[in-house]
């Protein structure tokens, strides 16, 4: 039967220790990177000139201005979700029937992984229905 020398045991134990440390560092690094961004809610205040116009969000009635709408958002202020599974969010202000000099306004936000500053969750949306364009 062959016996290992004390030097060989020291080398193997040291090597095992290094592998254990490397594995621990890898696991802790992965869990830090892989942890999902916390999701919370953010309220968007919606107002208009003139006040009291009807607002829809993605085709559903929200009520009349001034009002608010709550969305899911991550801690950076992005709409929650990821590219491919977050549809656009369209806010539409509709003037009363027969109102002269007032125009329908639409503001669209397109959440995605490639979001630009203009597609972050806004704190406020303002519709000026006296303008022909909502942009």
- Pattern of helices and strands: HEEEEEEE
Helix segment tally: 1
Strand order of the largest sheet: 3-2-5-6
Distance between the termini: 85 Å
Q: Percent helix among the residues? A: 10-25%
C-alpha Rg (nearest Å): 28 Å
Structural class: alpha+beta
How many structurally independent domains? 2
Indicate the mean pLDDT: 73
Question: How much β-strand is present in the residues?
Answer: 25-35%
**Rough shape?**
elongated
* Quaternary organization: single chain
Low-confidence stretches: 27-36
Descriptive account of the structure:
A hairpin with a 2-residue loop joins β2 and β3. The radius of gyration is 28 Å and the shape is elongated. The chain has two domains: 1-35; 39-128, no CATH class. The model is unreliable at 27-36 (pLDDT under 50). The protein has one helix at residues 6-34, and strands at 39-49, 54-57, 60-64, 67-74, 89-94, 105-109, 124-128. It has one helix and seven strands; from the N terminus they run αβββββββ. By secondary structure, it is an alpha+beta fold. The longest helix is centred in the first third of the chain and has 29 residues, at 6-34. The strands form two sheets. A four-stranded antiparallel sheet has the order 3-2-5-6, with no helix packed on it.
Briefly, what is this?
Helices cover 21% and strands 33% of the residues.
SSE blueprint and pairings:
Elements: H1 6-34, E1 39-49, E2 54-57, E3 60-64, E4 67-74, E5 89-94, E6 105-109, E7 124-128
Parallel strand pairs: 1-7
Antiparallel strand pairs: 1-4, 2-3, 2-5, 5-6
């Amino acid at each position: 039967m062959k016996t290992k020398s004390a030097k060989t045991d020291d080398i193997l134990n040291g090597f095992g220790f290094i592998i254990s440390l490397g594995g621990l560092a890898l696991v802790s690094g992965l869990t830090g990177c892989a942890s999902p961004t916390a999701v919370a809610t953010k309220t968007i205040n919606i107002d208009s000139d003139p006040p009291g116009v009807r607002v829809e969000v993605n085709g559903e009635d929200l009520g009349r201005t001034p009002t608010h709408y709550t969305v899911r958002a991550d801690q950076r202020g992005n709409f929650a979700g990821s590219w491919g599974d977050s549809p656009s969010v369209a806010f539409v202000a509709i003037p009363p029937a027969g109102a002269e000099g007032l125009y329908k306004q639409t503001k669209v936000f397109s959440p995605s992984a490639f979001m630009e500053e203009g597609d972050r969750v806004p704190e406020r949306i303002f519709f000026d229905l006296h303008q022909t364009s909502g942009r």
